[in-house]
Amino acid sequence: MNLPNKLTILRILLVPLIAAVYLISAMSDALGGSVVIMGIRLPYSDLIVLGLFVLASVTDFFDGHIARRDHLITSFGKFVDPIADKLLVNTLLILLAWSSRISVIAVLLMIGRDTIVDGLRMSAASSGKVVAAGPAGKVKTVAQMTAIILVLLHDLPFAIFGVSLSDICLWIATAASLYSGAVYFLQLKDIVMETM
């Protein structure tokens, strides 16, 4: 197994660890304690989850970069990398919604869109058509990751000005998600509708 694929597997393995730390801290005081920065209390558990999330996100950057640079792109990598990305981001979005830190509606809309787009892609692939990710999909990913980081940081440093930038990023991600989903559907509707 090459290095990019090992990094992808590491990202997948970090997901249950992140979930365990988050759930343990939510259901007990096992990871009690906090640090105060600019008057905002940051629990150690949020900082640990943030560190693991950043580590997993860094593996996402490096696995793609190394695979392209060293010509190590494999069928396994093409299949598993997007799954690892969705597992990481969607797990955190679900956990944050479960603990009422972000909107459940936004998370349901984004996960619903992802499910539909994955179905469209599979249908298109079976017909030999490949649709590359558009700019709106990339905006969605960046906004999702930014929202997650800001929620775990309790909106620092923006919270001292009373701004919930995490909410703004979350709804930008939701809008970009729905828009890119509509673009996918319009590009692939002929394939989906042909056997109706």
TrEMBL record:
Keyword Transmembrane helix recorded: yes
Classification via PANTHER family: CDP-DIACYLGLYCEROL--GLYCEROL-3-PHOSPHATE 3-PHOSPHATIDYLTRANSFERASE 1, CHLOROPLASTIC (PTHR14269:SF62), CDP-DIACYLGLYCEROL--GLYCEROL-3-PHOSPHATE 3-PHOSPHATIDYLTRANSFERASE-RELATED (PTHR14269)
Location(s), subcellular: Membrane
TM region(s), chain numbering: 7-27, 47-66, 87-111, 142-161, 168-186
Entry keyword annotation includes Amino-acid biosynthesis: no
Pathway terms, separated by semicolons: Phospholipid metabolism; phosphatidylglycerol biosynthesis; phosphatidylglycerol from CDP-diacylglycerol: step 1/2
The organism's place on the tree of life at top rank: Bacteria
Enzyme class label: transferase
Keywords associated with the record: Lipid biosynthesis, Lipid metabolism, Membrane, Phospholipid biosynthesis, Phospholipid metabolism, Transferase, Transmembrane, Transmembrane helix
EC number: 2.7.8.5
Organism: Amedibacillus dolichus
Gene3D superfamilies (alphabetical): 1.20.120.1760
A GO MF label: CDP-diacylglycerol-glycerol-3-phosphate 3-phosphatidyltransferase activity
Family (UniProt): Belongs to the CDP-alcohol phosphatidyltransferase class-I family.
Main location: membrane
Protein name (database record): CDP-diacylglycerol--glycerol-3-phosphate 3-phosphatidyltransferase
Known function: This protein catalyzes the committed step to the synthesis of the acidic phospholipids.
Lipid bilayer topology: Multi-pass membrane protein
Catalysed reaction equations from the record: a CDP-1,2-diacyl-sn-glycerol + sn-glycerol 3-phosphate = a 1,2-diacyl-sn-glycero-3-phospho-(1'-sn-glycero-3'-phosphate) + CMP + H(+)
InterPro entries xref list: CDP-alcohol_PTase-I, CDP-OH_P_trans, CDP-OH_PTrfase_TM_dom, CDP_ALCOHOL_P_TRANSF_CS, Phosphatidylglycerol_P_synth
Classification via Pfam families: CDP-OH_P_transf
